[in-house]
Amino acid sequence: MKITLKAGLIIGLIFYSFLAYSCTREADDHQKGSNDTIPSGTDPSYNLNLKDIVMRDPFVFVDTIAKKYYIHASSGDNQSFTVYESKDLAKWKCLGKSFIASQTFWGKSDFWAPDLFEYSGKYYMIATFSAPGYHRGCSILVSDTPEGPYEPLTNKPITPKNWGCLDGTLVIDSGQPYLLYCHEWLETIDGQVCLQKLTPDLTATVGDPVVLFNASSASWVGDISSGAVTGKVTDAPFIYRVSAKEVYMIWSSFAKKDGKYSIGLARSTSGSIFGPWVQSATPLNDDDGGHAMFFRDLDGYLKISYHAPNTYPTYVCIYDVDIFEGAVTIIK
After folding, report:
1. What tens digit of pLDDT does each residue of 177-189 get?
2. Where do the domains of the chain lie, and which CATH numbers do they carry?
C-alpha cells in the first residue's frame, strides 16, 4: 500500500502550533514555583490529562531521584522544544521551553523526536534537525537538569554528514556509549537502522556506522511514497536489554496489510546489540501508532510510550508491557 506523506507534514505543523499555544499559561505558572510535595492528582498545576496531550514521538524520562517523569516535545516553531512534567504519568503540566536554538545553531527546521538520557552526571537530549546545505541529521544537547535548559554539545550533526538521518537515540552497553539511528528511506529506499560507537564524552563518533538491518527484513512492512520516491521506512529504533542473553529492539514503519503506522519487534539472537536481529512476523499494535520506547516506572513496572494515531490529532499513549517466554504484549 502506498501512502502520501504530504498531508502528514501539513497536519504536523497544525498540531505543533497547538502545543506551543497550550503550554504558555502553564509555563508562566512554573516560573512562579510549585510544591513538589503535593501529589499530582491533587496539585492543580498538573492540569493536563495524559489522554488529552496532543504530541508526537513521546519519550518518557524517569527521574528516580526527584520521583518525576519528563517528556520533551517539539514546540512547532522550528526553534525550540517544550518540556512536560508528571508525578504519576496521568496528570501533567507544561514547564515551558527546554531548548531554544540560537541564531548560530545549525538546525533550522524539523526539531523532531527529542530523546532524553542521564549519562555521567549530565542529561543529554538527542533530536533530529534539518537546515539548508545540510543533510537531515541528529544532534546532542546537554543540560545539568532533566527539564533543561539545554544547549548544543557541539554545533553540528553527530550523524554522518553525507547521510540523511533521523531518530537518534543513546545506547549504553557495557559502559560504552553508542548512537542508534535511522539512515533515511528517502535516500536508501529500503530504510536502515544503524549503530555507531561514540566517544566517552559523546562529542564524536568512532569508526564507521554498522547497518543492523533494513526495513524489508520485516515481512510485515509495506511501501510508502513521498513525491517520486517509493520505499520502506525505518523510524525510531530503541534497544531494550532484558538480560545478558536477551536484547530486544522496537522500531516503527508502515504495515503492508493496512498501511497503518506500527511498532515492530526484533530480537538479537546473540545477545549482542550488533545482532544478528530477527524480526517478528507481525507488529506489536494495530492502532496506527508508533515511535515507541520502553521504560520502567517509579514502581518498577515495564511500560511503553508512543503516539497514536499517526494522523492529527495524535496523542501520547502509555501502557503496561508484559514480556513472557520471548513474547512481548502491550496491555491496554
Report:
1. 999 999 999 999 9
2. 6-207+297-331 (2.115.10.20)
